Fold this protein.
Amino acid sequence: MKKPILAGALALATTLSLVGVGLAQSAGGLSTLRGGGVDEQVPLEQVFQQETQRFNREYRQQPPLIPHSIDQYQIDMRANQCLSCHDWTNAGDRGAPTLSMTHYLDRNGVEMDHVAGTRWFCNQCHVPQANAPELVENTFQPSTGR
């Protein structure tokens, strides 16, 4: 007896949810941040280009921003192209900043000669820098160093 009632209530809730979504979309209250539909191409003029000068860090322990393009970089389970320049074995020859020693510690704090698996995917923390406007209003203030 309880199963048909539960199934009916679930069907009613689903129907009401779908009707609500349909009404919200037809009311015109929804808009996209990029100003176009999912199937529309965004003209290249609206895409912000990456800045090449180094940006200052805005707070203590902020991961450094990437001052170069990484569009064609392979970073997956098998390869990490960032390490071809930034690993401690290559950085001196390439004139690139060396990774922090924290990147060579495993989760138990044991120092290793290779990058820890927990630090393998660089773009988890590090992002290309761009001088783009805020998408939403915020009240963030950079650290003063005190």
